[in-house]
Amino acid sequence: MPICIECRHPVKTLWTKYSNADDKSSGHNIRLTVCRNCGHFCDKYVEHDFVVLFIDLVLIKPQVYRHLLHNTLMKDDDRFDSSIVRLGVLLLLFDVYLTWARIEKQTVPTSAQDEGANLGSLTQQSIVSQYLFFLILCALSTLAFHMSIRFMTSSVFSPLGMLNILPRYSRPNSVSTALLVSSSTKLFPILMVIWQYDVPAAARSLGWAVVANNVEALRILLDCGYGVATLLATTGALARWAVGRSVLWAAGLDGVDSIGETSIAADGKALWALLMYVREWASDLAAG
Known about the structure:
Blueprint: E1 15-17, E2 30-32, H1 50-58, H2 62-72, H3 82-106, H4 127-154, H5 159-162, H6 172-182, H7 189-192, H8 200-222, H9 226-250, H10 264-287
Antiparallel strand pairs: 1-2
């Protein structure tokens, strides 16, 4: 059932379409529904294009998340929308490229004797084999991230549910949808390929943006506090880091410190910076 993106009040319809709506000479003839609870339009994004949606996603506006998660992408039977599947594949391919490039830079041999000590037998394999390795690495890391958060939110054995911290959420695919939508800022590195993505400030900023979006998406979908949403994001980051390190260790790359923004160090710093920013903002607001 759709909701008002301003006050989250359930509504029957988001708009009313008149019989001559296809007549271009008379305009679109679609009237947005006004929420009886708050008096605002139930969903103003119905008439907005994708560019506006993406900008508001970057700005972490709660209304756009409610539009996407509750009024657009959420299916009655908790199926994945086809656009979410395509987005997930695209994000995975971006992770493969960025992780591969970053690990190669971190494991460049300093001398002829070190060659092979860093990358092991991986560099002796074909390009296809190397690509498959990084594809498996990123796929398993991403799967661990999603499955750990799905377990914490939807499993009957979730410690959060047993402690009555978070009610059990019966739509696990919607949780993954929220995580994928909020990770869309990972697509920014395609622009940074031109403008030196390996600049540390750029990587940190991207990590902060992804983590902040993940926390906000979980908070809106689960209707929980920022503390619980941050705990869920931290749990996912830990699982992702552990699986990634295990795969790297098995491949003889245990000396690699991180796998980009998927490392627990980067995610931890990003989470801490986000909390400090919220604390400073709250202090300034209280001071007037």
